[in-house]
Write a structure and sequence with these properties.
Strand content: 25-35%
Distance between the termini: 36 Å
Shape: globular
CATH superfamily of the largest domain: Peptidase S8/S53 domain
Radius of gyration: 24 Å
Structural class: alpha+beta
CATH class of the largest domain: Alpha Beta
Length: 542
């Protein structure tokens, strides 16, 4: 029988800063139709929104408008959307969007671990320097987001074997975890512990936050096979039952020089009762409740969740504990990237772990990657030796673990990548086959060590109300580079960020950008845009 893991026990109090999916499960046997947010604008003079909606099946109005516009906002299924668009009383229906606050904020967790006291980190300067490390997030997947540097996707959920270039985040948990560890320092949203580090998204949990032991083992098997290109793994999930296979898989990855960071769990019990938190060589992380980003016990959580009764600078009341805990980190009301393109706010040891994951990435960035188990344990020892003591352990387990502290620039001095680092010798190309130094790429042309190969990523945004889309190739590289665009409809452009209006001809387009760095080496990235006509032409990206 497959053993299940649930992140509901590892992430609590899901409060979206925009609109984030909750962690609740659908009642057994009852299908749940997916709903998206829309704004419905009615023709002036027609009946009130509440009266109007009563004539349509099960429409849940979230807000009504009567001054600036006449209408309402609601969560709609596809059938409800189509029904409303046909109603003669409706002027138009528009998909709800996401707004972003101007500028960038330092989240409380990053402040509490003293990132701002480390001048080598340059946290908050907005220059988008990216830590030269690769972090694998084993979770619900990681969504495409302008504030993340996602370079690889692997799906190990509900498949016989892990599938590359697949596995989106249909929950939100994994995208929040990724942002805590590595959100870019680019004057947008928030900042991660290891800003801009490369993210490999490995989906092991489904849209209900559940996954099996075999799925996690499959993901760890993929990581170990690619250990030369994965520096740190984050696992924010807990498993029960017979977990010997998880222990063996984690230890094999560690033996290959991969640092494995795991959440302690949210059952307020000894972490030894849960895997992988009970694996000695994994770095197990408990959660600190901190409401203001500084010591002293004076912070509160009203800004996040009025029902949060945790005390500032104490062990979170949900956190597991015990002698197997290696280190504590902030895990209560942690703000980071959301799967809808905006930002989210989660609590749990799931959020504490990626702080440590980012810190480990700082230590081993550049050429300092461990080669074996001894090197991994040396990273753990550095994290613990540099921890702080100014917090209150309320677990009464007799062992007070150090609180993560990254202010020491001699230890936490990151190597920064020059743009998005190209695949290294031996790293899989898009065909999935390793390329030895000087070996052929899929095109058959040999490459030198460090030559860019394959495809990168484009951030694409379309507003669903016109045929105009925005494209951003910032993830491909940095300054002194050129970007040449071909939109697939005969039009071309240059620049790192461009806007293009597709012709009225409907269909699917494949915009591409060719990035050329200052040494003349190139990387090509592609997107997919579909243009359709439902009560007017519009385009969307996927």
């Amino acid at each position: 029988m497959k053993r299940k893991a649930a992140i509901a026990a590892l992430s609590l109090a899901v409060i979206s800063l925009t609109v984030a999916k909750g962690m609740g499960a659908t009642p057994s046997g009852q299908p749940s139709a997916h709903k998206d947010g829309y704004i419905v604008v009615m023709k002036d003079g027609d009946k009130a929104p509440a009266t109007f909606s009563s004539g349509h099946s099960h429409i849940d109005i979230t807000a009504s408008y009567g001054a600036a516009i006449h209408g309402f906002s609601a969560k709609l299924t596809t059938d409800q959307l189509n029904d409303l668009r046909k109603d003669p009383a409706v002027a138009y229906v528009q998909r709800d969007g996401v707004g972003h606050a101007d500028g960038q904020k330092i989240p409380t967790g990053v402040s509490r671990i003293r990132a701002l006291d480390n001048k080598a980190l340059k946290t908050g300067d907005g220059k988008d320097q990216r830590v030269d490390a690769n972090i694998a997030i084993l979770d619900t997947g990681v969504a495409d987001h302008s504030d993340l540097n996602v370079v690889k996707r692997v799906n190990c959920s509900h498949v016989d074997r892990c599938v590359e270039d697949a596995g989106n985040d249909d929950d939100g948990h994994g995208t929040n975890v990724a942002g805590i560890a590595a959100e870019r320092d680019n004057n947008e949203g928030y900042v991660g512990v290891a800003p801009g580090a490369r993210i490999t998204s490995i989906k092991t949990l489904d849209d209900q936050g559940s996954g099996s032991t075999s799925e996690l083992v499959g993901a760890l098997d993929w990581v170990t096979a690619h250990a030369s290109t994965i520096d740190v793994v984050n696992i924010s999930a807990g498993y029960s039952g017979d977990t010997r296979a998880i222990t063996d898989a984690v230890n094999r990855a560690i033996a290959k020089g991969v640092v494995v960071v795991v959440s302690a769990g949210n059952d307020h019990q000894d972490a030894r009762k849960q895997s992988p938190a009970n694996i000695p060589d994994a770095i197990t992380v408990s959660s600190l409740s901190d409401g203001d980003g500084k010591p002293g016990g004076q912070g509160g959580f009203g800004w996040c969740n009025k029902n949060n009764k945790n005390k500032d600078d104490t062990l979170s009341d949900f956190s597991n504990f015990g002698p197997g805990i290696d280190i504590a980190a902030p895990g209560d009301c942690i703000q980071a990237t959301g799967s809808d393109g905006g930002y989210s706010n989660y609590s749990g040891t799931s959020q504490a772990a990626p702080h440590v994951t980012g810190a480990a990435a700082l230590i081993i960035s550049g050429s300092a990657k461990p080669k074996d188990r001894a090197g991994v344990l040396a990273v753990r020892d550095k994290l613990r030796a540099n921890g702080q003591d100014n917090w209150t352990d309320t677990s009464h387990d007799g062992v007070k673990e150090p609180l993560l502290d990254i202010h020491n620039s001699a230890v936490f001095k990151p190597a920064f990548a020059d743009g998005d680092a190209p695949p290294q010798p031996g790293e899989p190309t898009p065909s999935g086959q390793p390329t030895p130094p000087g070996g052929p790429t899929p095109s058959g042309e040999p490459t030198s060590p460090g030559d860019p190969t394959g495809f990168g990523r484009i951030s694409t945004s379309c507003d669903f109300s016109s045929t105009t889309c925005g494209f951003d190739a910032s993830a491909l590289g940095g300054a002194n580079s050129t970007y040449t665009w071909d939109f697939g409809d005969g039009a071309k452009a240059t620049g790192v960020k461009v806007t293009h209006t597709f012709s009225k001809k409907l269909g699917t387009y494949a915009p591409t950008v060719t990035y050329t760095d200052r040494n003349g080496k190139t990387v090509t990235a592609a997107a997919t845009v579909n243009c359709a006509d439902f009560y007017g032409p519009f385009c969307y990206a996927y």
